[in-house]
Design goal:
With about 120 residues, the protein is an alpha+beta fold. About 25% of the residues lie in helices and about 30% in strands. It has a single domain, classed as Monooxygenase component MmoB/DmpM (Phenol Hydroxylase P2 Protein), CATH 3.90.56.10.
């Protein structure tokens, strides 16, 4: 009798943190400019797909509105949270909107000070 060995499933459950966060933008003029600005940040990866643009980062990324406004050829204050939400279709990670930027965090603990979340002590 021959024993068969099956390979480990690539779809198995894994609850460890990926340390990644990201958004999916529309693949239009605004989305392309936002992706271009975000590509200047360290640890940010841009993936252009036919109908969308993926913007993924390790740990954290900041969408600074005035940088994006300038790249779009607009006055400061043009690009804001509403413009960001209009062009974004989905995200993963913790999203925090500030007056001057949207911040994406891979881990909720890193966003705790922004969202008023008091982390419980792990010391007993």
């Amino acid at each position: 009798m021959t024993a068969f060995k099956t390979s480990e499933s690539p779809f198995k459950s894994n609850n460890t943190s990926s340390n990644l966060c990201g958004v999916t933008l529309m693949n239009n003029q605004v989305g392309a400019v936002v992706a271009e600005v975000m590509d200047r940040q360290e640890q940010v990866t841009i993936t252009h797909l036919p109908s969308m643009i993926r913007v993924d980062a390790v740990n954290r990324m900041d969408f600074v509105y005035d940088e994006i406004s300038e790249a779009l050829g607009e006055e400061p204050g043009f690009y804001d949270a509403a413009e960001f939400e209009e062009n974004m279709s989905t995200h993963y990670g913790r999203m925090v909107h500030e007056d001057d930027r949207t911040i994406m965090f891979a881990n909720p603990e890193d966003a705790a000070e922004y969202i008023g979340f008091d982390l419980p002590s792990t010391v007993k």
